Amino acid sequence: MAILAIRIYPDPVLRTKTRPVIEFGPALARLAANMIETMVAAPGIGLAAPQVGAEVRMAVVDLSVGEDPAQLHVMVNPEIVWREGLETDVEGCLSLPGISDKVDRPTAVRVRAADLAGRRFELGAEGWLARAVCHEIDHLDGILFTDHLRGLRRERVRRQLRKLAAEREEVHA
Amino acid sequence: MDLKGWFGGKGRGSKQEYTIDDLIVLERYEEAAERLRQNLKANPQDLHSHLKLAEVYTELRQLDRAVDEYAFVADEYAQDGFYDKGIALLSRASKLAPNDASLRERIEAQQREKSMDHVRVLAIEGLRQSGGQAEGTSVLELQRLWHNLAPSPLVQTMPGELLWRLFATMQLHRLEAGTVVAQEGSQEPFLLLIARGTVETTVQLAEGAATLVRELGPGDVMGEAALLERGAWPADYRVAEAVTVLQLTRAGLERCLVGLSDPRGFLEMLRGQHLDREVAAAVKTLRGGGA
Predict the structure, then answer these.
(1) Using a CB-CB distance cutoff of 8 angstroms, which residues of chain A are in contact with residue B8?
(2) What homologous superfamily does CATH list for A12-172?
(3) What angle do CA B257, B258, B264 make, to 5 degrees?
(4) 3-state DSSP call for residue A103?
C-alpha cells in the first residue's frame, strides 16, 4: 500500500467528471487501499478518486478515521437515490487546505453503489455520514464544496482560493 | 484497465475543465468572459451569468459593458419585485460610471416603485383575482405585468385598495396580433387597460387607406368613452403586437362601484388619461375638421 499525493486546488483533475468503473479487479482494490491509507494519514474522513488524480467513480468514507473498520465505506459508482431534509454545517476538504465554510446538505441520503467485487449495495446515511457521502460524490462530478457557496461567502472563499492557488504556484515555481 | 489507466486521463474521454469561478479565482478573466458569453448565448436570461460577466468586465476594466450587465439584471430584479437587489446593483454600476445620469434616474425610478410596494401587493392580488392564475399566469408573470402597469397614470393616481377592487373586477386576456379590439363608431361598452404589447388606432380616410392615428402601449386605457360616457369608439382599434389586457365590462364596473364612498372620483381616475378624447380629436384633424 502507498500514500498517494493529494491533489490541491486548482489542480484541474478536481474538475473531472469521472468515468464509471466497469472492470472490478485487483487494480481497483489496490487503488481503494491506497486511498484509504492516504485518507487516514491525511487525516480525513473521506476521499474521492480525483483527489488522488484518478478519474474514476470511487470514493472512500470513514468517520472514525481508521479507528473502526465497521465505519469504513468504499463506494464504487455511487449515486444518491433518495435524500431528505437540509442542514447546514461547516465543511473542509483535503484538496482545499485551510478553507472551511458552512454548506447546506441533506440530513439523510440513500446511496446505491458497488463494492470492490462489483456487488451492488445500498447505504443509508444520516448526519455527518450523509454530509461526507454527498461531499465525496460531488467530487466525482467535479464539484467542490466551495461551489455551493453564494453571496458574501463566495466572495470570501474566492479570495481564499486565490491565495491557495498563488501558494501552489510558488511551490511549483 | 490497470491502475495507470485511471490517472492522467486527458484524452481518454474524461472532461477536465475549470469552472467559470475557477477562471475568476485564477484571474483568467478573458476566458471567463468568453465562457459566460457562450452561456448567455444558450440562455440569455441567466441572471447569474450576467452578474458574473459584470464582475469579469469590471476586472477587465471594460466598465461600460459591466454597467450594461448590472443594469440588465437590476431591471430583471425590479420586474420581479426585488427592488432592493435591483437598487443595489444599480448603485454598484453607478460607482463604475459616476457620471452616468441615467443610472441615477433608474435608481430613483426603482425607489419610487419600491415605495409603492403596498399598492403593488394589493394590485397583484387584484390581478390574480382577475383570472390571471386561472389562465396559467404565474405569480412571477403577474409581477411582470404589474411592473409594466406601475408607471401608468391610472396606477400612479389610484390608491391601492381601489386598484385591488378595480383589477379584481377586470378580466385578464391575451390577444394575438391582428385582433380587432373595436371598430370606429361601435358602442360596445368595455374598457381595456394594456399591460403588455401595443394596439394601433386607425381610421379610414376618404382615399380609402387606413391611417394610423396613435399607438397605445402598456399602461394606456382605451374605451372609456364607450363604457363610462355611453359614447362611441373614436377609431378602429387593432392589436399590433400581441397584448395582455385587463378588460372592464359594464357588469364589472357595476360590481366595482358597489359600496364605494366616492364613485365619481373613482370614475374620474379611470378616465384620467382621456385617450379616447385625444384619439377622437386626432381623427377629427385627420379628416379635416380642425384641431
Answers:
(1) 53
(2) Peptide deformylase (3.90.45.10)
(3) 35
(4) strand
- At B102, the amino acid letter reads S
Question: Quick check: B2 and A27 CB within 8 A?
Answer: yes
Do B55 and B24 meet the contact criterion of CB atoms below 8 Å apart?
yes
pLDDT at A133 over 90: yes
Domains defined along chain B, listed by start: 18-113 (1.25.40.10), 119-286 (2.60.120.10)
Catalytic residue (one of A37, A84, A91, A136) = A136
Residue extents of the structural domains in chain A = 12-172
- Tell which phi-psi region holds residue A3, choosing left (phi > 0), alpha (psi between -120 and 50) or beta: beta
Burial tier of A23 (Cβ tally within 10 Å: 0-12, 13-18, 19+): exposed
**Residue percentage of chain B with pLDDT more than 70:** 91
pLDDT band at B10 (very low <50, low <70, confident <90, very high): very low
Inter-chain touch B21–A147, beta carbons under 8 Å: yes
Q: Who wins on pLDDT, B144 or A63? A: A63
**Catalytic residue at A170?**
no
Among the partner-chain residues A55, A142, A147, the one whose CB lies closest to the CB of B6 is A55
B8 touches chain A (CB under 8 A): yes
